[in-house]
Amino acid sequence: MRQLTFEPTLPYDLSLTLTPSFISSLFIHKSGTWIKVRGILDGLVVWQEDGGIFCKYSMKLDERYVKRLLGIHMPPFECRIDFHDQRLNDVLRGLASVYPGLRISSSPLDFSWIFTAVVLSRRADYEKLVLRWCTSIARITGNNPWLLLNLSRNLILSRIGSSYQILNLLDSLNSLRLILTEELGLSSDDPDELYVASQKLSECDPWRLRQLLLRCKYVGPKVADAVILTATGLSSFAPVDVHLVRVSRRLKVLAPDVSMMPRKELCLSFTCHSCPSRGECIRGYLMRKLGDLFGWYQTLTYLHGHLICKSLRPYCRICPLKALCPENK
Ligand code: SF4
Ligand code: SF4
Fold first, then answer.
1. pLDDT value at residue 39
2. Ligand 1 centroid, distance to 266 Cα (angstroms)
3. What are the DSSP E strand ranges found in 38-161?
4. Do residues 195 and 112 both lie within one domain?
5. Does residue 115 lie within any of the structural domains?
6. Selection from 267, 273, 184, 180 nearest residue 219 by Cα
7. Co-location of 112 and 228 in the same domain
8. Residues near 267 by Cβ (< 8 Å), separated by ≥ 6?
9. What is the pLDDT of residues 245-300, one digit of tens each?
10. Mean of pLDDT values over 105-113
């Protein structure tokens, strides 16, 4: 076993970084240790101790890739909170103090698995269902989700489950296969070649990648942005989910007239820089306001919305942000 040790600039928290990310679907997590069980660096063992990050693997590790996977290739986002908008600075500092050390983890070479986990997560419980489905898919495909397209539906339904998300995944994978073969010049639809070709998607221009993904069945702006954030680590791309909208609204990060959810028909034709609705669209507005802190902010709001600022009964009494929250006055 080879061992690598990193001493990232603090704050850094391995579990806060991996848990809310779709990258966690590639790991199992046992008593503070993360073991990569799918895709690139399968078998990598990672843990955090006394501020250091320790990695064990059977072969020599690509240090740069591991740093990216763990989100320690860049300095903490906390150092970059310096906007003209003082309210935004206060909210970001407040959220960062509740969830310190959260970074953005990414893995371009795991594109197929990331796409699979994100598509499966549409209206499905991530912890209870998506992680279990990913494990079953890995088991019956020998770790290549593209192989699903070659298996019988009956086998898939009996071995993975009969939820509509699984059937939708087959359609999404099939449309991504058509894009890879008919438009991006892949000459074969062999599952191994599809796996390798999809890794290259992470290198595309991200706006082009967004539009390609949006042409897949059951892929809307939220899914496309989550895939891009997780596969490329580009933190100016982030999914507009219910937690982002609710927490941003309650903390008055969104201007009152910014209420439009991303619209697929517009996203297919424009980037958020050129879109005629960028002033009223939540994604266009937050991306322009936050730049490449957008993905970090979205992940912080995801955690806060999930744990404390709940939809029906937010835990305002114990919320560490109550002093700066207008909702709590
Ligand atoms: S600003 Fe336009 S392109 Fe960007 S997410 Fe909104 S609708 Fe889509
Ligand atoms: S005080 Fe209440 S409404 Fe405000 S952020 Fe906290 S939980 Fe949400």
1. 95
2. 6
3. 45-49, 52-57
4. yes
5. yes
6. 267
7. yes
8. 210, 211, 214, 221, 224, 275
9. 999 999 999 999 999 999 999 999 999 999 999 999 999 999 999 999 999 999 99
10. 98
Q: Which residues of 269-306 are buried (b: 16+ CB within 10 A; e: fewer)?
A: ebbbeebebbeebbbbbbbebbebbbbbbbbbbbbbbe
Q: Is any ligand 2 atom within 6 A of the Cβ of residue 308? A: yes
- Kindly give the number of the ligand 1 atom that is closest to the alpha carbon of 278: 1
- Residue 59: its pLDDT value, please? 92
Question: What's the structural domain count of the chain?
Answer: 2
Ligand 1 centre distance from Cα of residue 105 (Å) = 24
Ligand 2 atom showing the smallest separation from residue 250 Cα: 3
Report the separation in Å between the CA atom of 102 and the middle of ligand 2, taken as the mean of its atom positions. Answer: 20
Of 198, 232, 266, which residue sits at a domain end? Answer: 232
Place 234 in a pLDDT band, splitting at 50, 70 and 90. Answer: very high
Q: What is the mean pLDDT of residues 146-175?
A: 95
Q: Which atom of ligand 1 is nearest to the CA of 281?
A: 6
119 shares its domain with 217: yes
- pLDDT on residue 185: 86
Model pLDDT, residue 266: 98
Amino acid at 99: Y
Q: Is the CB of 76 under 6 A from ligand 2?
A: no
Indicate whether 129 and 193 sit together in one domain. Answer: yes
Stretch 108-126: mean pLDDT, rounded? Answer: 97
- The residue contributing the CA closest to ligand 2 atom 2 is 316
Distance 17 CA to ligand 1 centre (A): 27
User: Are 113 and 225 members of one domain?
Assistant: yes
Residues with CB under 6 A from ligand 1: 221, 262-263, 266-267, 270, 272, 275, 277-278, 281, 283-284
Residue where one domain finishes, among candidates 202, 232, 262: 232
Residue 218 belongs to a domain with what CATH number? Answer: 1.10.340.30
| Rounded Cα gap, residues 286 and 274, in angstroms | 15
- 228 and 170 fall within a common domain: yes
Ligand 1 centroid – CA 71 distance (Å):
27
Read off the pLDDT band of 91 (50, 70, 90). very high
What is the distance in A from the centroid of ligand 2 to the CA of 242? 15
Query: Is any atom of ligand 2 closer than 6 Å to the C-beta of 164?
Result: no
Let me know whether 116 and 228 are in one domain: yes
pLDDT over 80 (residue 329): no
